[in-house]
């Protein structure tokens, strides 16, 4: 009897010890812990971060994020700059890093009209290649990359930005040469190379009605044809006055109704004025620098800081409310200092779009959103 009781208390004592060992102090708890039962929380890594040049930044990534994606190094222009010559140096490092730390690794992006090398579409005379040649090039590109990371990269942004805001097809070279079939082919090639990997369609301005409806139609049609499309990525390059959070939520629900998972793939919230009359993230659009377009070179005003805090909270409220549909939220960069928004669409501005400031300190909103989750 006494032996039995000793054994019981021994087990109890051990479980408390194990519990204590796995318990994190408040300082150690990161976003990924707070969101562990909600959705994955990811970050885009630039080349310095992939090479782990700064230990503090590295530690920050490991503390807060359980999913990673390459900001640039897996894009076609970087990974296959010359036909048949693949450069996997950075992408290999990214995938090793993710595997080592048991992160959900996303490959971005296989087929995209931007950051694509010229050779992809032309023959030796510089003329557009035939549909057959383009298909072959897409197949080789997708098979080579997806196959290299088979069973290691968990999900791929297979096609990026194929649809315009009004729902029409983007008149890209892929579309001009192959018509809408290029999307279906890209998903087929990716699925052939790794049948286990999740496959996504990814785009910006997904809260716009025309694009929302067209993406729902496209994904539904692909699925009816037996094509694997596991998820729809909403880029989430937000501005202070666009989009309305209600429209964003409508799109999450509409995309979810196709049976696909939804992920917020490239979240940032610019505090700067938009030089264009349209919104979005078409990276070839650029405007010249003007001082009035860079209103906060030395820090955001109090008003803007508060407005941004509120906007982040509003959006995270929606993401959390839609957690049964949303499987991941990925920030497009670690800190304000790293953000592409400092140089796009106008080079040389000072923007504040991320959750960590220029000194890699969490903004107050980080603690707030961590408390909004079911397990803060
Ligand atoms: C951006 C990168 O952040 C920049 O470093 C690069 O110069 C241009 O591309 N949509 C996408 C991302 O899908 O790949 C883009 O990333 C931003 C818009």
CATH classification, class level of the largest domain = Alpha Beta
Hetero ligands: (3S,4R)-3-hydroxy-2-oxopiperidin-4-yl beta-D-xylopyranoside
Strand order of the largest sheet: 1-2-3-4-5-6-8-9
Could you report the average pLDDT, rounded to the nearest whole number?
Answer: 95
Order of helices and strands: HHEHHEHHEHEHHEHEEHEHEH
Helix/sheet category: alpha/beta
H/I helix tally: 13
In percent terms, what proportion of residues is strand?
5-15%
How many beta strands in the DSSP annotation?
9
Distance between the termini: 42 Å
Sheet bearing the most strands, described? 8 strands, parallel, barrel
**3D shape:** globular
Q: C-alpha Rg, in Å? A: 22 Å
Q: Bin the helical content.
A: 25-40%
| Uncertain parts | none
CATH fold-level assignment of the largest domain? TIM Barrel
Number of domains: 2
Task: Specify the CATH architecture of the largest domain.
Answer: Alpha-Beta Barrel
CATH superfamily of the largest domain: Glycosidases
Give structural notes.
- The protein has 376 residues and is of the alpha/beta class.
- The chain folds into two domains: 28 residues; 337 residues, Glycosidases (TIM Barrel, Alpha-Beta Barrel), CATH 3.20.20.
- The protein is 40% helix and 14% strand.
- The protein contains 13 helices and nine strands.
- Helix 7 runs parallel beside helix 9, helix 10 runs parallel beside helix 11 and helix 12 packs parallel to helix 13.
- 41% of the residues are buried.
- The model has no long low-confidence stretch (mean pLDDT 95).
